[in-house]
């Protein structure tokens, strides 16, 4: 789960395994004594000296803030006609373990994203008799293969290009093969986060699972009423009415997106509103604020455990060494430059990126500023042998949501995290 804390868990741990590992980590590193729970963040603002205050001064004053609320909030369960008449069980995809039995049952999964594929894995492992995935729109599926993933991420433009048809054709012919009808029509690979799963095609070929491209019309007593559509027919287009019968319905309908509205209003001034921030993470007016994975939209090959650490160390560099700190003017110019480089992108310039583009962002951040050169090894690899010990200690404490002093309420704290 963490590179510094290897865990002995299954390849796809369930909720209880993940929570037990997090609790063990919290105790082992003494974080249970240094963490404040059940604290609702109403606002974050600066005092007259530029120090950050979370809610009110009683919680302390900080040089920097990390917002790590992620992109997934409460589960979204849209109300659909006839749900109250369905005679079987209805569950959200995030609440299957321990609450849902799929053995020898027919499971209907509503949704065509990553949550739907995870629900498919769950149903298959539990011994479901038949699994239907009812998908309103098409998403690309790529194999869980390091070579494939690396080649697809080697797109420094982070967008569809004149050569994008090549990997898309190879995927259709080498991975989808006889199931090529499931591949998106008219939707580029470099426009949306693909699903990564090597086994799904085998499950579909074995007929234990069926992928249905359709619109949901409503529930019936025995299942779900749909409008089946052919490949290339847009959502809401002409199709064939059908009823999919099942014992259990899983709503793989995603999550509400958490809000960053506790930050100052100046963080959201257009055209520099999220995700249009410096390195997609730092609001241009506040380089001492890092919203790691909070503005994330879509990508290929983000390698989260690496880039989250790099973002954290970039923030530390800004806080500890004033000469490295970017001005709002230059942060906005970098955003403008990225917009120009990706002006032909079918999505917003910061709404999709590849791993190679992300590497370019980080390299540009350090290479074009001589004052940051001495920090390069620290930023990219976490090597702190060139840094004072208090800087390395500060990084550890910011990762753990503490100030440099290790005391949440002291005035000389380096950072706050929530």
Short structural summary:
The chain is α/β, with parallel strands linked by helices. It is 27% helix and 17% strand.
What kind of sheet is the major sheet?
7 strands, mixed
When the domains are counted, the total is 3
Which sequence of SSEs, written as H and E, runs from N to C? Answer: HEEEEEHEEHHEHEEEEEEHHEHHHE
Question: If strands are numbered along the chain, what order do they take across the biggest sheet?
Answer: 4-12-5-6-9-10-11
Class by SSE composition: alpha/beta
Strand content: 15-25%
Radius of gyration: 24 Å
Silhouette: globular
Q: Kindly, what is the distance between the CA atoms of the first and last residues, rounded to a whole number of angstroms?
A: 20 Å
Figure out the total of helices.
10
Round the mean pLDDT to the nearest integer and report it: 88
**What fraction, in percent, of the residue positions are helical?**
25-40%
Uncertain segments are: 401-418
Number of strands: 16
Q: Layout of helices and strands, plus pairs?
A:
Elements: H1 15-28, E1 44-46, E2 52-54, E3 61-67, E4 89-92, E5 106-110, H2 114-125, E6 130-135, E7 141-142, H3 146-153, H4 165-176, E8 195-196, H5 200-205, E9 209-219, E10 223-228, E11 240-245, E12 248-251, E13 289-291, E14 298-300, H6 304-320, H7 328-341, E15 352-354, H8 355-367, H9 376-381, H10 389-399, E16 413-417
Parallel strand pairs: 3-13, 3-16, 4-12, 5-6, 5-12, 6-9, 7-8, 14-15
Antiparallel strand pairs: 1-2, 2-3, 9-10, 10-11
Helix pairs in contact: 6-10
Report on the architecture of this protein.
The protein has 418 residues and is of the alpha/beta class. It folds into three domains: 1-33, no CATH class; 42-71 and 264-417, no CATH class; 83-251, FAD/NAD(P)-binding domain (3-Layer(bba) Sandwich), CATH 3.50.50.60. The chain contains ten helices and 16 strands. It has helices at residues 15-28, 114-125, 146-153, 165-176, 200-205, 304-320, 328-341, 355-367, 376-381, 389-399; strands at residues 44-46, 52-54, 61-67, 89-92, 106-110, 130-135, 141-142, 195-196, 209-219, 223-228, 240-245, 248-251, 289-291, 298-300, 352-354, 413-417. Strands 4-12-5-6-9-10-11 form a seven-stranded mixed sheet. A hairpin with a 6-residue loop joins strand 2 (52-54) and strand 3. Helix 6 (304-320) crosses helix 10. The relative contact order is 0.15.
